[in-house]
Specification:
The protein has about 400 residues and is an alpha/beta fold. The protein has three domains: about 10-55 and about 155-320, Rossmann fold (3-Layer(aba) Sandwich), CATH 3.40.50.1100; about 55-145, Rossmann fold, CATH 3.40.50; about 325-405, 2-Layer Sandwich (Alpha-Beta Plaits). It is built from 16 helices and 14 strands. The strands form three sheets. It has a six-stranded mixed beta sheet with strand order 1-2-10-7-8-9. It has a four-stranded parallel beta sheet with strand order 5-4-3-6, sandwiched between helices. Helix 5 (about 85-95) links the parallel strand 3 (about 75-80) and strand 4 (about 100-105). Helix 3 (about 55-65) crosses helix 5. The radius of gyration is 25 Å and the shape is elongated. Residues about 1-5 have low confidence and may be disordered.
Length: about 400
Amino acid sequence: MADKALLTLADIEQAAGQLAGQIIATPTIPAPMLSETLGCPLWLKLENLQYTSSFKVRGATLAMAALEPAQKKRGVITMSAGNHAQAVAFRASQMGIPATIVMPKQTPFAKVNRTRSFGPKIVLEGRNLNECEDTVQQLMAEQGLALIHPYDNLEVIRGQGTVGLEILAAVPELECLVVPIGGGGLIGGIAVAAKALNPKIRIIGVEAELYPSMSQTLAGQPVQCGGETLAEGIAVKAPGQLTRDLASRYVDEILLVSEAQLEWAVGALVEQQRVIAEGAGAAGIAAIRAHSGLFAGQKTGVVICGGNIDTRLLASILTRNMVSDGRMVRLRIDISDEPGMLAAIASAISDCGGNVVEVYHQRLFYNVPAKLAKIDVVIDTRGPDHVQEIRSALINKGFKVAMIDEQSD
């Protein structure tokens, strides 16, 4: 390999040769509906379709292949919020290497269970990757295990860089490439490859607002991170030394996204492109929506870096997005407690094309007179204008109607 102080295009091309036949050459697809929504021609690199549903298997494979035979026999260890954990466990199982995975305690059940299915020893410790490090160091010393670092490892970075080769091979005319940043291994490797192949391309990193560790580090600011984020895959409190050096040299800008923007992006990928992404995987889409002026009209590629999202969380996000968009609402309707009231309400909603999802008929727990009641109706709608149509129809029938957020519960 080349001088380890500098990663080159040749290093990443060599990595692509080593990985041939061991990874999935995931597709880079146009995203017409999202392109229209976001105002730029958009292509998605679907690493959520990779082995273990994330890009991580690329780097993990190279890092373990580089170990000496005696070390492979003793085993490997890593710390990960889930995607790197699954990749190491998956490839270690195939290579016959014992693996120990240290994961933050709050890692989603889906990621823990999928990692465990590959047969490694699982240790749950700390609230984020950096809090796992003491446990990792202790186990390495006690058992002689080799650390497969999730990002600050040149072999790992080389492997992740092959994503960039594939994107530029598919869409060489890209003007912007948007990549999520956790520890920085993915964007570091991609940026080296992309800038070598197309020096004019803009490399844009994306961090969760709660974990802006790379942008703060590069700005020379104290790193201040913390909190529960939908993008736990990029919730890293300290980037690596190798990765910060690569980001400083090759990354043009780093954008931050809020939790609400991440939620919208996860939902938009499902609804508009039928692509399932975890929070970190959707971060690039969130950034384009939040900073649309930077991308307007620009041919833009986005790395959908992972798809390991808990199904209950995904269902909740989709429902919350419907509520925020006005496509699902709850109306509170005052009625007299007499026969035919519920039928009249249902008729008014039905005549407008609304779909009743749930009905709550309260006589006892709201502060209403004995001969009155309140009905809460959850309705599927086409959007805010449709909601107003339904509300007007109910008012015209003599009902007092309020949106649930217009008054206290």
